[in-house]
Amino acid sequence: MKEIGIFGGSFNPIHNGHIALAQYILKSFRMDEIWFLVSPQNPLKEQADLLDDNLRLDMTRKAVLGKPRLTVSDAEFQMPIPSYTWNTLQWLSKEYPTVSFTLILGADNWEVFDRWAHHQDLIDTYRIIIYPRRESVVDTQLLPPHVTMLDMPLVDICSTEIRERVRDKLPIDHLVPSEILKDVEKYYANGQ
Fold first, then answer.
1. How far is CA 74 from CA 7, 71, 96, in A?
2. HSE (CB half, 13 Å, CA atoms) of 84?
3. What count of other Cβ atoms lies within 10 Å of the Cβ of residue 163?
4. Which of 9-13, 132-136, 182-186 has the lowest mean pLDDT?
């Protein structure tokens, strides 16, 4: 059975931390691929400064182009909004019956995981990998079976910081892949 990690998010914008994390998980968990699942709307997050869905999707595709075993999925673009991970994973599992999916999420999302739709079904049905996030603490002693906290250094880059740096006309070339640098500077220059 093929092992695929589902790394969902707004990717507003995707950055070097996302890619480094995906590559680390590929090696550490012997996954076949990581799919960046671009979400049109996270039900638990304020979306006021969210760039157009298709622009975020296009930048994410450009950012992973040529990077082995990293790909992009627009599955949630075909689904009702807001996007619920349970519905997405159920749909993907039906579409790809020979694939075992693992959900990849940040420690900040794990802290509010009990607010996710069908959170217990997700825990019972799929393997979950949690990655460290700034100011989020996960007690690994309390994790259910099939839920793993990544033992890796914090990749301290966030999309909010990138958007702020673009608005303030500060350099971001060390934060985003070179393939999307000009796009990020252009799309977020006006406060997106």
1. 12, 10, 15
2. 11
3. 21
4. 132-136
Kindly provide the b/e burial profile for residues 111-125, where b requires at least 16 CB atoms within 10 angstroms of the residue's own CB: eebeebeeeeebbeb
CA 188 – CA 13 distance, rounded (Å): 9
pTM of model > 0.90: yes
Going by C-alpha positions, the residue among 15, 50, 51 that lies closest to residue 172 is 15
pLDDT digits (tens, 9 = 90+) for 147-156: 999 988 878 8
> What six digits make up the tokens of 43?
């039900």
Residue with tokens 């500060």: 170
Q: What b/e sequence results for 8-21 when a residue is b if at least 16 CB atoms lie within 10 Å of its CB, and e otherwise?
A: bbbbbbbbbbbbeb
